[in-house]
Write a structure and sequence with these properties.
54% of the residues lie in helices and 3% in strands. The protein is mostly helical. Among the domains are: 83-108 and 116-198, no CATH class; 320-427, no CATH class. The strands form three sheets. Strands 1-2 form a two-stranded antiparallel sheet. A two-stranded antiparallel sheet has the order 3-4. A two-stranded parallel sheet has the order 5-6. A hairpin with a 2-residue loop joins β1 (7-8) and β2. α2 (76-83) packs across α3, α18 (303-337) packs parallel to α20 and α19 packs antiparallel against α20. It binds heme C (8 copies). One heme C (HEC) binds next to α2, α3 and α5.
């Protein structure tokens, strides 16, 4: 028997010596040039095939198991390939498919629960496999977006369909789920591709970071950074939104590098006066965060150049704040003198402030006077355009549509103040007033 004569590894199994090869028998064996079919040679040939088959089988096993995920005896994929074929295509093209993460990995196997959730999946579920990303995300402003909008007076004063379509389409990036987690992860990497590359593109931010109160995409588009990126498509030549705000050390926490520029109206250092309600931060926080941002400029810029660029933007922010403060003082005086028309007490109550004058963040655009409406546009739009334009290096936003427009607002507000005071002085005193006079 030759069956005992093959080697396993370095151990020789069976009789003759370790270098023994069977002597060919011309009567039964193939001609000399064809090697004899020993089990050892057979194994040598079969091994690679077996390895390939094994790898394929292992991969397929994972895919077969996701294809086999079932509900009431039928596979998710089977039904949904007919119901929503493009969802299946997107999933098949995703990293999840490759990694063997199936429908039930995110949705579970309870259709009633899925319907109750409108098919959405909470960050807590993603965290089962992506704990770091979810923890980072929960530190940033995105995770608070729904809560912040719901607390806003503008939200409380809006009809439900405007709340849903005019606020929550953007603010659902911080959607609050019944399990307590918050965030809609598919806002930047759309389901069911869940592609990291898609989220890196500036388009991923565009739908929300646009318009007169947060024109980041417009400003970036108009900056040298945006122009160069759009021309060359190279993140190593010019930075995209993600290059300065996400990824790297901060990961999914887009607030990690924010100082005076953060939030709707920006921030001031603790203790400094605020023209309208703003966020605050300590000098220590300022320094730490500014250094983190500057580190991101370094691959492309000198330290001095980058620092001066940001310090200049800080000066623009402070100049814009000063204009808002001047306008706010005029409005407060007009209210104190009782010459606003209508006065706050003569209009529907503000959701939280009642009949007091409200300026800035909580201010409304309904049932106000012309001068307050102009202040709303100044504080909400032109102030934002000026400093957000400066932090994104768009000269046009910083000057023409920002600073120049604020000066125009201030001219109008000063003029209106004169007119309102004149009008009040010319108005005949009310009969009650005459009787009260001595
Ligand atoms: C990585 C997690 C994940 C996986 C895996 C996943 N989904 Fe989803 N699915 C989501 C999220 C998040 C949403 C909500 C956002 C959306 O509509 O894309 C969703 C939404 C849906 C919806 C509702 C879509 C709509 O617009 O009405 C359906 C149907 C659905 N998934 C089916 C499936 C099926 C079938 C599979 C398996 C082929 C699957 N999902 C795999 C996360 C996942
Ligand atoms: C017997 C067929 C069938 C099976 C099996 C099935 N689904 Fe569905 N599923 C449906 C239909 C039909 C809808 C409703 C589609 C619609 O509204 O257009 C649906 C809806 C959904 C939704 C969206 C719910 C919403 O409120 O929008 C999700 C998510 C979903 N299925 C996931 C799954 C997952 C995960 C599995 C496997 C564990 C699965 N389905 C198995 C037929 C099926
Ligand atoms: C059962 C585990 C599991 C769950 C649940 C899960 N993922 Fe994944 N996800 C993976 C694996 C594995 C990969 C591939 C390896 C990697 O990149 O970490 C991946 C990759 C990704 C990627 C990178 C894709 C790319 O282009 O490189 C994104 C983005 C992602 N997941 C988002 C999500 C989101 C959002 C959710 C929740 C809605 C989710 N995942 C739920 C396991 C999971
Ligand atoms: C679906 C809408 C949406 C998308 C998409 C989106 N954001 Fe936001 N972002 C918001 C909202 C809403 C806020 C304000 C949240 C709050 O403060 O309550 C915000 C705030 C921010 C802030 C300010 C953080 C702070 O602390 O003030 C940065 C920076 C930011 N986003 C960067 C990005 C980048 C970069 C992208 C793209 C990769 C992006 N966002 C995509 C809605 C979005
Ligand atoms: C186009 C998307 C979009 C819409 C629509 C939208 N927001 Fe926002 N909102 C944002 C972004 C982006 C920010 C962050 C501003 C920034 O950092 O420049 C923000 C900031 C805010 C903030 C400030 C959070 C903070 O603490 O600084 C509040 C409050 C807010 N929005 C409420 C609302 C309300 C209420 C509505 C509807 C009446 C609304 N938003 C509509 C995108 C949107
Ligand atoms: C504001 C946009 C945005 C949101 C919202 C977002 N991501 Fe991401 N995500 C990104 C970007 C950008 C990348 C690519 C990062 C990179 O390549 O450095 C990414 C990459 C990933 C990856 C791949 C791993 C990696 O770091 O490359 C995973 C996993 C992931 N995200 C999970 C999530 C989860 C879970 C959520 C919800 C809690 C979420 N993402 C929400 C922008 C976002
Ligand atoms: C070259 C770096 C850089 C790029 C690229 C960049 N930003 Fe910024 N961004 C900044 C700086 C600097 C600030 C102000 C930081 C501070 O508070 O100190 C800022 C602030 C913000 C804020 C807070 C409000 C504001 O504008 O001051 C948001 C939101 C934001 N960026 C979103 C984006 C989006 C969306 C893109 C892409 C269209 C983008 N950024 C591109 C550097 C950048
Ligand atoms: C990936 C490379 C890259 C990064 C990162 C980067 N920049 Fe730039 N930046 C450029 C390029 C390229 C130009 C155009 C240079 C030229 O004109 O030759 C530029 C130009 C500028 C300009 C001049 C704008 C003008 O109109 O002349 C300023 C200011 C600037 N960057 C500030 C910053 C700051 C601050 C940071 C960090 C927060 C930063 N950049 C990060 C590549 C980068």
């Amino acid at each position: 028997m030759t069956s005992l004569k093959w080697r396993v590894g370095r151990v020789v199994v069976g009789a003759p010596g370790r270098n023994h090869r069977p002597v060919p028998d011309p009567s039964t064996d193939a001609p000399e040039r064809r090697p004899p079919r020993t089990p050892r040679r057979w194994l040598r040939g079969a091994l690679p095939v077996a390895v390939v088959l094994g790898v394929v089988a292992f991969g397929a096993r994972r895919h077969l198991s996701v294809y086999a995920q079932r509900l009431d005896g039928q596979s998710c994929v089977g039904c949904h390939a007919t119901e929503n074929p493009r969802i299946i295509d997107q999933w098949v093209g995703s990293a999840h498919f490759t990694a063997g993460v199936g429908c039930a990995g995110c949705h579970g196997v309870d259709h009633d629960a899925m319907f109750a959730a409108d098919g959405d999946v909470s960050p807590k579920v993603c965290a089962e496999c992506h704990a770091d990303e979810v923890t980072e995300f929960s530190r940033g402003a995105h995770a608070r977006a729904e809560r912040d909008a719901r607390q806003a007076d503008l939200f409380k004063a809006a009809p439900p369909e405007i709340q849903r379509q005019g606020c929550m389409l953007c603010h659902s990036i911080g959607k609050i789920f019944p399990d307590g987690s918050s965030g809609r992860c598919n806002h930047c990497h759309t389901g069911h591709r869940f592609s990291a590359a898609e989220a890196r593109a500036p388009h991923a931010c565009e739908g929300c970071h646009m318009g007169p109160d947060h024109p980041q995409i417009e400003a970036w588009n108009a900056s040298k950074h945006g122009i160069s990126f759009r021309a060359l498509g190279d993140e190593n030549t010019a930075p995209t939104c993600v290059g300065c705000h996400l990824g790297g050390e901060a990961g999914h926490d887009e607030s990690a590098n924010m100082t005076l520029g953060r939030g709707a109206a920006g921030a001031v250092l603790e203790g400094e006066p605020q023209a309208v309600p703003m966020k605050t931060l300590t000098q220590a926080e300022f320094t730490e965060r500014r250094e983190r941002m500057l580190a991101l400029c370094r691959p492309c810029h000198g330290a001095k150049f980058a620092r001066q660029a940001l310090e200049d933007a800080d000066l623009v922010k402070r100049a814009a704040d000063a204009l808002v403060a001047e306008a706010a003082d005029i409005l407060r005086s007009l209210a104190a003198e009782g010459v606003l028309a209508p006065m706050p007490e003569d209009r529907p109550a503000h959701p939280t402030a009642g009949h007091a004058l409200v300026l800035g963040g909580a201010g409304l655009y309904t049932h106000t006077s012309a001068v307050e409406q102009r202040f709303f546009e100044m504080a909400r739009f032109h102030h934002s355009i000026t400093f957000k334009g400066a932090y994104h290096f768009s000269p046009d936003h910083t000057h023409w549509t920002g600073y120049a427009a604020m000066q125009g607002d201030l001219n109008f507000i000063r003029d209106e103040a004169r007119r309102l005071r004149l009008e009040a002085a010319r108005r005949p005193a009310a009969p009650g007033d005459r009787e009260a006079a001595p």
